[in-house]
From TrEMBL:
The chain crosses the membrane at residues 33-52. It comes from the Bacteria. This is Uncharacterized protein. Keywords: Membrane, Transmembrane, Transmembrane helix. It comes from Niastella koreensis (strain DSM 17620 / KACC 11465 / NBRC 106392 / GR20-10).
Amino acid sequence: MANKSVYWIPVIGAFISLANYDKENGLSEGWSYYQALMIIATIWIISLVVFYK
């Protein structure tokens, strides 16, 4: 558990797949990246609360 950056690998993968999925469904590219960023920000805040009490 020393290297917490390993946890960001699936998050980055989810970000890319979310952006591509929304782009394929006809939404604008900016909106899909905004939506994925909001999900990542939520995960980041939760992980800060859990890991750094």
